[in-house]
Amino acid sequence: MARDLGTTSQKVLLLLGAGLALGLSGSPTKYFKILKAVAKEWEDIEKRALHRAIKNLYRSKLIDIEEKSDGTITLILSEKGKGKILKYKLGEIKIPQMARWDQKWRIVVFDIPESKKKIRDILRFHLKMLGFFEFQKSVFVHPFECKNEIDFLIEFYNIRPYVRFIIAENIDNQLHLKKHFSLL
User: Fold this and answer.
1) What is the pLDDT of residues 118-175, one digit of tens each?
2) What average pLDDT is seen over the chain?
3) Looking at the chain, which residues constitute the CATH 1.10.10 domain(s)?
4) pTM greater than the 0.70 cutoff
5) Buried b or exposed e, range 101-123, using 16+ CB within 10 angstroms
6) pLDDT exceeds cutoff 90 at 43
7) Residue limits of CATH 3.30.70 in the chain
């Protein structure tokens, strides 16, 4: 079937599939190489060709298109629900700093099995890159609203059963955390 598709359509499908490759990549180095290659390929696609390719992929039922009320469009791979393309770019997720801290701590707790060690390490890497404080080996703390960003990571890596998100008003050593996050 892929032979019947144009070059741009093939590229779009490969780029959508890159999400799966990212999820399976074992090291952050490979992960960022994939991200860089994907970003370059997106830049190389001409806009008209991209729109044509998306329409063709939709007509051939290889992808679904979901239009949100805010005007954003989400492309979803339809092939047995392999994956979704979400509006975030994985390498560009950031937690926005709140104008005024609401005095609440966001805590991510996870217990990912040894059989998924690579995903556990990747999640730990992401949390550190997002500025979380490693409270314990599988407990990370952040002072700012980040539920959407954490939900995205959980869905992307398909680890919902292993991860908990907690909002707390008090932590017994929060003076140390406040210093760490420059909240004093």
Assistant:
1) 999 999 999 999 999 999 999 999 999 999 889 888 877 889 999 999 999 999 989 9
2) 77
3) 2-90
4) no
5) eeeebbbbebebeeeeeebbebb
6) no
7) 93-180
Other residues' Cβ atoms within 10 Å of the Cβ of residue 28: 13
Which of these, 99, 97, 107, 123, lies nearest to 174 by C-alpha position?
107
CATH fold of 2-90 reads Arc Repressor Mutant, subunit A (1.10.10)
3-state secondary structure of 3: helix
Average pLDDT score over residue span 24-48: 60
As a whole number of angstroms, the distance between CA 47 and CA 53 comes to 10
Q: Quickly list DSSP for 106-124.
A: EEEEE---GGGHHHHHHHH
Q: State the Cα–Cα distance between residues 153 and 88, nearest whole angstrom.
A: 10
Our measurement of the distance from residue 102's CA atom to the centroid of its chain's CA atoms, rounded to an integer in Å, reads 25
Find the mean pLDDT for residues 34-54. 64
CATH class of 93-180: alpha beta
To the nearest 10°, report the CA torsion of 81, 85, 90, 94.
-120
| Torsion angles phi and psi, residue 34, rounded to 5 | -65, -45
Distance CA 142, CA 95 (A): 9
